[in-house]
Model the fold of this input.
Amino acid sequence: MAKEMKESSEMEVPSLVDLCVENVVEQFDTLVTKCSDCEEPKFIWRFLHPGCRIPPNAAITILARLQCRHIFKREHLTLFSKHYVNLHAFFLINLNLTPSMLSILRDFTLYDISVGILSGISLNDFVSTLNRSTFEWLHTLDLGDLAIGDKETKCASLTALSQLTNLQSLSITDMALNSKDLALLITPLTRLEFLDISETKVTDIRCLSELRNTLKELVMRKLRLQTRRSFDLSITDMALNSKDLALLITPLTRLEFLDISETKVTDIRCLSELRNTLKELVMRKLRLQTRRSFEWLLSTILELSELRFLDVAMFPFPLQWRLHEIEQLIGPASLPHLKHLEMCGNSFNLTISDLQTLAKNKPNLEFLGLAMWNKATLHESWEIENLSIEHPDIKICGGIHEGQIMKMLEHYETDFEIADPILDEMEWAMSVGTVYSHHFYEFLVNRMEGSRELVNIISSADIYVAWVMTQGERSQNIPRELLQRMLNCALTLIEEEELDFDDDEDTMEESDEDEDEEEEDVDDDDDEEEEEEAGEVELGDGEGTGNETVNTEDVNGIYGNDDNNDDSGGEEGAGDGGDEGEEGEG
Done:
């Protein structure tokens, strides 16, 4: 009875506003028309009352849903001017614009702005459309992949953005900003709690020390570390080792989110200092290779009592030993608040019995990711489906049952690292005799036709060939319309890949020039640092610079080419080298 009451309470009835918004989106073409009496043709709403305006929450929801469903075009921006809507937030992505099209923003006080992949405009064009009240009240800004412009306009734009003194969340991903630009931008932003500088040209993040009392979440994927100072660190996909992590974490006492994926960290014991604050921890593809490394990792995880989100997916070298920490991890006393556990690839080498114990002992668990679980055992892959049936309150994604694969493709649609191997699992399952229905392939085609992201990771041609080969003589029963749709997807994918290859060649020279310029800036910075070194205050423990220097080969090398450069190198030897050897058994 209690379970039925819970399920009933979770079935939310849509509000009247939400129903109206959905109706507007579905009937969009009927509700708008092109004005022929205006000075220049433009779209207008077919409102019953001329003075009617859509309220802020409904307006931004309509704007977002139209774009998500690929209905919105740049000509529709006039529908969201002050004549028709009130706006407190603005969302715009993947459009080709002219600067004048953004002039509608001048008439609103905005608190939340998210724009990205906009061609035809620069950062300066965008900043110039914001009015004084927006500069005063804006608290969230996402500027993904926005063009910077020349050096003069870039400096003016960054100076203007630094006046957003109430800003709490800032994302400047995939923008051509370097370390000096970052310092210019964030130094005055003393209230910043979230910062994402992924895929920028930043190589020196010492300026972030100014945010040590406010910053709670820091995301820095795929940076190119080039300087040699103790605080010149990045988080994901970098040569960050265990000592670097400790130096970075020490001042950030209020950190709630941390992502150290694809780094050289093998010892996370420093995170125990965050046991009362850290709520989300992502550690994908850590290259742990020894028993001691796994013991340190698991024992530290067990200390993080406030953890809600844990991602330990796709370790290249899964745990080979049965540690007593595993029994504690799956037991009832650890991680009482855990809601999301991503274990794609089975990094801790758990069994189906372990998963059953885990699911039973974590009452707040809502998601369990088990993709790429165990190709060696077909039985266990099928057992994940049974586990999902036994625990309907937990969203379990894993296994090779076609229902599970469909669930995984929906959940991981934009998580390309996991979504791509899911199809490999399907091919493996087919190779050992698993047969999928034509309804399953129809689901794949529907997803591909509705999502450009999914098309990029699924080879529809491979699916088509594998399907026909598996069905054998029954291929005659495949609906011809479905076969044609699959073929169209394959041809579209091939054509787009050819175009992308041409675009990549055109941009390679520009990218090389930008990197050369940044390297020159780094050399100049290092010369200045050597002159000022005696008077600077380090953010370390003051035990000398030898342990704080980042090896140039580690930084510039491609991850995984030289195993002797990572932390685990010392463990493979006599136990007294590398990060772990120097810090001892502790």
